[in-house]
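To assess whether ligand presence alters the predicted conformation, the chain was also submitted together with protoporphyrin IX containing FE. Input:
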Amino acid sequence: SECVSLSPMREAVPAPPECERVCVFGTGDLGLSLGLRLLQAGYRVVFGSRRPRSSLLLHGAQVLGHAAAAQSALLIFIAVQREHYDFLVPLANQLKGKVLVDVSNNLRKNQYPEANAEYLQSLVPGAEVVKGFNTLSAWSLQNGPIDANRQVYICGDSVEAKQVVMAVATKLGLSALDQGSLSVARELEDFPLQLFPQWRLPLRIAIGLSAAFFFYLLIRDIMYAYVTQGEDISFRIMVSLANQVCPIVSLIMLSLCYLPGVLASFLQLYRGTKYRRFPNWLDSWMLCRKQLGLLSLGFAFLHVLYTLILPIRYYLMFWVTEHTVSLIRENRTTTFDTTTAWRGDSYLSLGILGFGLYVLLGITSLPSISNVLSWREFSFIQSKLGHLTLLLCTAHTYLYGWNRFLSSSIYKWYTPPGYMLCLVLPSVVLLLKLLLITPCVDRTITRIRQGWERGADQ
Ligand code: HEM
């Protein structure tokens, strides 16, 4: 067999000494793409096949029977479905001491009792199995690492075997990350099956809250008007209702971002130590804070856009004209109310400041930005400025509500308006945070975070 030659120029050059032979079992999409990339990287590629006489698969690659192919190389990629692994059992002798790379994936989680790679190892105990490359698709192998993710994960029990695989990955232009022993294989096999895992809960919360508030406000505002006054104001669904649902969901989700941190602090205070694990629900809640925050930023952004178009609504223009004409007709004037002006300007200004900080929080949570921040800078922005954002947005909503909670006419069908409901959670979070930053509590928390334990030093 001869080494691959990419251009006629190189045909004359003898094969470089590092032109190693690599074997690929399996001639499916992935096997072929892998073979192609290996050839391009300068390896000699031998395909192991049940029918070695089948026509040449890839120009420059060799096709041998399984046993002969296995004997020809140290490194063997197993690009075969798990159900067919048992063809390897009779090859135990030829596979002794070889490095087998299990690149397989499953169709769903928990399809088999043990990881494919562990199953492979149990079938061929004499070989060294390395799990890896399973996060790469045939597509990304063919398109090269420029388009696709360069990172591949590997795991295995033999350090030497992993080094062999890593060297090949490097030559293919990939960067392999060693994840540890073969027992991690299951995690690696589940990895490609995940679909935006950290977004799932935040998305559900966003959809759930939006739907709940949409129907609540639909009944309270639009159906109420229809039932009590026979008035059809259903057109309000499009802008007015949306411009209530969006900021309400945004504010609640922003407070959901900061609630777990506050709860965790209280838990540490209560336990008097930082060395006990948080309950699982708190852990997973804390892990999706970034997604919660980014989604709530999206909702805030929609609120700002909806607010910007308020002046060009037909509804508003109609009423302004109507009001002006009626003033003229009745020869009336209205007086300027400074309090109303203060209130309006204040809540708008707080909204704008809150939104500005909100965007800053969103930007600094992007990996390319957060990677260049030190931990101290990151936590300053995400914690201090984060709570300030929550404070500004909550104050914006309180000022918007002003003293209307005092008038009974606002409680249609004995229900409070949406902005009142959405103020509950942020107010609780801010109050708890206020408690936490009082000097004596803060001192205890800081000591606990530094490793001090209650009762340990007595
Ligand atoms: C309500 C403006 C940012 C939360 C309002 C209203 C306006 C407004 C005009 C009254 C809407 C109406 O009467 O239909 C602004 C501007 C902002 C801003 C100009 C920034 C540029 C924010 C942010 C939040 C927020 C970042 C936080 C999530 C709310 C809430 C309401 C509200 C909860 C009450 C909604 C309701 O009517 O039930 N804002 N806002 N706003 N805003 Fe903002």
